[in-house]
Amino acid sequence: MSILAAAAFLVATVLPAQAVTLLRDPDIEHALKQLAKPVLTAAGLSSARTRILVVDDRTLNAFVIDANHIFIHSGLISRLQTAEELQAVIAHEAAHIANGHIARRVLNARTAKTAAGIGLALAAAVAASGGSSKAAAALGIGISSSAGRVFMGHTRAEESAADQSSVRYMARGNVDPHGAVRVMELFSGQDLVSAARQDPYARTHPMSRTRLRHVKALADAYGGKINPDPAAAYWFSRVKGKLTAFQRAPKWTRQRAGESAAEDIRLMRLAVAYHRDSNTSKAVATMKSLLALKPKDPYYHELYGQILLESRQMKAALTAYKNAVNLASRDALILGSYGHALIVTGNAKAALPVLEKARARDGQDARVLRDLAQTYATLKNPGMASLVTAERYALQGRMKDAGIHAKRAAGLLPRGSTGWQRAQDVLSAAETASKKK
């Protein structure tokens, strides 16, 4: 799935209820996983189960809503300068998970009337991670500003504990903990700014000069002599390079492509810039140079497929996506992109097993469910089309619509079949949601 194939969802924030957008890109998520691995391992968390996801928001923030997901705003990633700084952000949010702060908050929210909608919002935050970049619809889940603050805000005691734990995780993972100091310095002075002008991170993570001094002391105590990791620097450059290539002006990207940590990243940034400038010939030529340099990199093949598909070079796009799948057959986002390309080119029969495999790997990708529903409808299987549509609406929190489609699916699918049972599950969830209103 391309970085611009994003979806809107509602999540508890310090602002009134609003739609925010996830940027799902296999390359970026893979790179973030590499960066996160040492600090997550040090925190006792599984790097395979804890996903680092990017929120399409130019403000500076990072947060957790459950034990398996860490969200980082694209604006924060763009402002950070080193791998250690990004790893510090991940380590800090991991500390909130490892220290049980989120588990206690979720437990309290379940019994709080003011946070009645938060359970659905938590599911939607990850579930609605697919969709169209051109028309990503917000979910119908409202969360009050006060409930958001209760759920997302950390106490000063929690922040102090997370600071100490995160610095320890970084040192244990052989990551320079002074990266945490530089992140804190980025937010220095936020406690003196009015709440309306503060960065969201400062509003959910209480800031103070005393806290900054404490983090400096911790970094000095734990740090010692830790040399920068070239691999981490590479993955950081790749994350930031691709993210900014899609979000900043193409001219800005071309001027700074030479600052990349490696030649392949420089070429990737240039290819994206040319593509966004509608200079297809240069974009394709640059991608060919990139793939000659990195022929076995599935994420560069996936990007090539995106560029070709969006340039209406359908046959070549399918080949590129197929190459990506051959190199990363278990990556759900790559499978989803290939399945989408097959549908666009009119090959629903071939798309079905690819999309079902993507769904099995990541059942929370609403774009895959949308494409699956379209595929089943094309193949004249209305029962499964209605079922998958119902499941997509349920993941997005649109329980009334989910119930309508689940009821239709139950009437079309063989009674007692697996699909019929899935429809019953959605119906039950829709009925429960209706009773709580």
From TrEMBL:
Spell out the coiled coil positions from the record.
none
Cofactor binding note: Binds 1 zinc ion per subunit.
Q: Which Enzyme Commission numbers does its entry carry?
A: 3.4.24.-
Q: Which Pfam families match?
A: Peptidase_M48
Superkingdom of this protein's organism = Bacteria
User: What protein name is recorded for this chain?
Assistant: M48 family metalloprotease
Q: What class of enzyme is it?
A: hydrolase
Q: Which cofactor does it need?
A: Zn(2+)
Alphabetical UniProt keywords: Hydrolase, Metal-binding, Metalloprotease, Protease, Signal, Zinc
N-terminal signal peptide? 1-19
Per the UniProt entry, what are the Gene Ontology biological process annotations, in alphabetical order? Answer: proteolysis involved in protein catabolic process
Record lineage = Bacteria, Pseudomonadati, Pseudomonadota, Alphaproteobacteria, Rhodobacterales
Please name the GO terms that the record assigns under molecular function: metal ion binding; metalloendopeptidase activity
Q: Where is the Peptidase M48 domain?
A: 30-218
Q: List the GO cellular component terms.
A: membrane
| Similarity-based family | Belongs to the peptidase M48 family.
